[in-house]
Amino acid sequence: MKRKLIILFAVISLFTINSVFATDTFYQKGDQKVTFNVGPSIPAFIYFFTTTDSTHTENFYPGLEVLDVGGYGSINFDFFISEKESLGIEVGYDFNYDKGDEIYSNVPIAALYTYTPIQNGIWDFSLSAGLGISFNSRDDQTLLSLFSSFKANGSYFFNENWGIGLSSGLYLAPNINYLSDLTDDNGIIAYAPVTLSLTFRN
Amino acid sequence: MKKYITTFTILFLTLFAFVSCDTDATNGILSEIVNSETEEDFELIAVSANDNASIIYSVEDDGIYLYQSDTTSLERTLILDTSDYLNVLYLYLDYTNNRLWFDYYDLIDSTTYLAYLNTNDFTQDPTTVSYNGTFIEITSNGYVIAKDTSTYYAFDLDGYTSGTVSASVGETFGSSTDSLDDTIVVDDDTIIVQTVEIIDEDDDKNEFTFYIYDGKTPIYTGSTTLDYKVVAAVEETAGSGKYFFVTSDASLYSYDINALSDKLTQLFENDDDDYYFNMESQKMFVNGQYIVVFDEDLYVLCYDIDESDYAELDADDLYLSEGFANTLSSTSDIVGIFPVDNDSNNFLDDNPNKYAYYCYVATNENGYYFVGMDTQALSDDDSDYSESESLSFTLVTE
Questions:
Q1: Where are the domains of chain A?
Q2: ipTM reported for the complex, 2 dp
Q3: Of A139, A179, B3, B92, whose CB count within 10 A is highest?
Q4: B315 CA to chain A: closest CA distance, Å?
Q5: CA B243, CA A3: separation in Å to the nearest integer?
C-alpha cells in the first residue's frame, strides 16, 4: 500500500512539474525584457595569482574574512535573438565594507548572453553569462578591470508583462595591474549577489 | 547565431584592449582590502605621563595600561585589570616616588577609594590610602581634592609618605555655601581651584573665587573674585609668583602674588560680548611676548602682550607637514606636551585608523606656532604598536 502511494505521488509530482515548467516556448525572436535587481552581496573570495611576504602571504582569501556583506543593484536589458537565447547588457553597482571600514565598490558594465530553457508564460528560469568591464574603487584607489558573471534567475510573471523573481550567481572582477610595481597585486575578487528582481517584458 | 558570437567576441576584445591601456591603476586594491584591519576604538578616561612622555599610563574601559615608547616603538601593556577596581576616573604618576595613584569606587560601601600601585612591581596589589572628606578628584599634577561638610581640602600626593591623606589647617578653602567649579593645573606644583557663588541665575551672573596652591613652598593661598571663571593659567617663569589667567570671556589677566597691592591686573579685555571662550580642557604657555592657549581640539588663541592683540586659530587651519622637528630652531622651542583627545580632533576624524597620544606645541620669535602630533596606527593586534609613526602639523598665523 505504501509503495503504491509513493508511486502515485511521484506520478502526480512529475505531471505537476511538467505542467509548470512546460517545454513550450513563450518568447519569440525580437522580444525584450528589462529587469531591475536589488539585494545583498556576499563577498565570495579574493584570489591572488602570486603571493608576497609584504602584502598577501596567501593566494586565497575567503570573502567574508576580508569583506562584510554589502549590497548590489543592477538593471538588465535583454533582447531575444531566438526563442530561448537573448543578448543584453547589465549595469550594476556593488559595495562591500572591508575590515578597516573602507568601502570597496564595483561598477560592472557587461554584455550578457542569456539562455532561458524553461519558459511557459508564467515561470521563467534562465542562465546568464556576462563579459565586460568594471570600475573598482576603494578609498582613493581606482582600477578599471575586466568583469565576468555567471548567474541564474527564476521569475514568476503575475500578468502578461510584469514578473518578480530571485537571482544569484558569481561575479568576478579580475584586477589586472599593468604597472610593473603592482603586478604582484594581480588577482580576482568575486562576489555573489542574491537579489530580488522585477522584470518588465514585451 | 554565428554572427552574434563574432560580434560578441569583437566587443570583448575591444573592451580588453581598452582595459589594457588603462593607466589609472594607482594601487593594488585587493592587497589593501586583505590588509585592512578592524579599527579598535578605545577611550582614554585619564592619562598620566613622565616628563618626556616616554612612559604613559592610561585608564581605559577594562584597566590601567602602560605605554612605553622610545623614538621608534610603543608598547602597550595591561598593568591592572580594573574589574575589581571600578570607575577609575583619575590617574597620577608620581615618577619620583614610583607611585601610580588612582581612585576607584566600591559598590559594597558606596565609597570612592584612593590607591596607588608601585611602578617598580606591578605584581603587588594596589595600596589603598584613606583620606579626609568626600573625594572629588585627583588633579593631573597630583593633588587630591576632597570636601567635608564645610571645607575643601587639597593635598599634594608628591609629599605623601604614609598614613592618612589629610590637609592641614591653611590648606583648606571655600565654605559650605560654595561649590567647587573647576581646578586649573598650572604646572607640576601649582593648581588654581575655584569656587563659584551664583549671584543672579536670571542674568547668569556668577562670582568666581580662586585660590592658588603651590606645593613647592608652604602652600600659598591667595584669593580674589572675578565675574568669569579662569579657564587656563600659566606662571610667567618658574617660581616668579606671577601668573597669567585667561577667563571664559577670553580676557587675559596677570596675578602677582608678591605684589603688595593690585595683585590682579587685566592685560586684555575682550570687548566682543558674543565671544565666549568655552574650553573644557585648556593648556596655556608663555614664550616671550606670546601667550598661547589651546584646547584638545587644537583650537588656539594667541595673545601678543606687547601689541595687546590676539589671534584666533582653528584646528581646520592645520595642515599636514613633513619634517616638523626640523622647523624648530631647538627643542627648547617646544613649550608644551600633552595627551590628545582622540574623540574630538579633526585630523583624527579624517584618519580613523590613527591614534594620537601626545602633542607638541611651540612658538618661535616670529610669532609662528607649530603643533606637532605623534600618532599611532590602530590595530587589534598589540604587536602592531611597534609600527610607530610620527606625523606632524604646521600651524602658521596670518
A1: 22-201
A2: 0.84
A3: B92
A4: 24
A5: 102
